[in-house]
Write a structure and sequence with these properties.
With 302 residues, the protein is an alpha/beta fold. The protein has one domain: 3-Layer(aba) Sandwich (Rossmann fold). Helix content is 44%, strand content 16%. Strands 1-2-5-4-3-6-7-8-9 form a nine-stranded mixed sheet, sandwiched between helices. Helix 3 links the parallel strand 3 and strand 4. It is globular.
């Protein structure tokens, strides 16, 4: 598909004059941060619009591929602009590429405004972006600590706040917040990351209560070990994690969307082999009332 820079708030395909923007130097394009690449399609305005953060790889890219196959216009947010363009080229449907550093307050503000003004409005927001570091807390870089809070939690709240008014007004819409089981645990050497995921958990569960009877579905996802390369970027040694505990990003994206469409508040997505063991053990050993409570908590796949 032909790609050209274009404001995300207006989805009409760009003309020849706008194509030259694509050839600008990196420095000249800085003023266009928050504007994206649209893979042009005559029916872009008729498609539901899903925005995905952390979309350049892993779970975010898996969400993008599945939603594009389902007919969504997908907005792709990440810092890796080249990877986003490559992903957009590979999708079967139209895509907006929105290179944005969520740790940069000005870039986040521009993205917020684009979501507020988007036409069509965002019908599905996937807050998936995450960063972090691994090691004793006193050795974590101070700037990296701030970035972890901004990307993992502050951006989740602000982007959710940006899309909610239109969703509430229309009586429909969905938000998926990707968290982690580690948010429920004490996790030495991962304190900043674990704390932000605990914050996402608390924020999501509280907001779910506020959104009752609005028609907006808010789903909290806790994926288990997933092969995304994220642990390598954290600097975490995962060589000792057994293969049966790992799963693909595609499994997480598919399970998350299934849970969201069933209206589930919380879903834990373990690897298929581990999930089968957990389900079998619970069915045999746990009373029905306790099983129901565990499912509602998100620790047992439905």
């Amino acid at each position: 598909m032909r790609l050209a820079y274009h404001p995300a708030a207006s989805l009409a395909c760009p003309g020849p004059a706008e194509e030259s923007v694509y050839r600008m130097s990196t420095s000249a394009r800085r003023a266009w941060i928050g504007r994206g690449l649209i893979a042009c399609s005559d029916d872009a305005n008729r498609r539901p619009y899903a925005l995905i953060t952390g979309a350049s790889s892993g779970i975010g890219a898996a969400f993008a591929r599945q939603l594009s196959e389902e007919g969504y216009l997908v907005g792709l947010v990440a810092t890796a602009e080249t990877a986003l363009k490559t992903l957009a080229d590979s999708l079967p449907g139209p895509a907006l590429v929105l290179p944005t550093d969520l740790a940069d307050p000005e870039q986040l503000r521009v993205l917020e405004q684009l979501l507020i003004e988007a036409d069509p409005a965002v019908s599905l927001l996937v807050n998936n972006a995450a960063t972090g570091s691994h090691g004793p807390f006193v050795e974590h870089d101070a700037e990296r600590l701030s970035d972890t809070v901004l990307v993992n939690f502050a951006a989740v709240m602000r982007l959710t706040r940006a899309v909610l008014p239109q969703m509430i007004d229309s009586g429909r819409g969905s938000i998926i917040n990707v968290s982690s089981p580690i948010g429920l645990l004490a996790a030495p050497r991962l304190a900043p990351y674990a704390a932000t995921k605990a914050a996402v958990d608390s924020f999501t569960r509280t907001l779910q209560l506020e959104l009752q009877n609005t028609g907006v579905v808010l789903t909290l996802v806790r994926p288990d070990w997933t092969r995304t390369g994220f642990h390598d970027r954290l600097g975490q040694d995962v060589a000792g994690v057994p293969g049966c505990k790992w799963q693909s990003p595609e499994v997480v994206a598919r399970g998350s969307l299934e849970a969201q469409r069933r209206g589930k508040a919380v879903v834990w997505i373990p690897p298929r082999t581990l999930g089968a063991v957990v389900r079998a053990g619970v069915r045999r050993a746990v009373p029905a009332r306790i099983k129901s409570m565990v499912r509602r908590s998100g620790w047992l796949p439905g």
